[in-house]
Structure prediction request, 108 residues.
Amino acid sequence: MLKLQIFRVSGRSMHPRYRDDDYVLALRHRWQSFGPGDVVVLEHPQLGRLLKRIVRCTGAGEFEVAGDNVAESTAAGVIGPVSLSAIIGRVGCWGQSRSSDPEGRIGA
Prediction:
């Protein structure tokens, strides 16, 4: 099963690649694997939906993530390990638009 979702970026933690109000398309399928360098949308229990880059695999199905713009990103230690089940999808493409709000905003 392939799942595609569109999200609107909110914030500057992934700047300059992903900017506030950009749109990203997150893709997920059941055979997908994730690794360092992948940009993903994830659901954090306290912080909500986030756009982050996977830094490393920390164990069985867990990842350390961080923003590209360290000065304006929540620290990896605050986010904590991210489980595979928390990942909504890998960002496949992105673009700028000022039109209507799609499915939801994600914090960058």
Summary: Residues 45 and 55 are 20 Å apart (CA to CA). The chain has a mean pLDDT of 89.
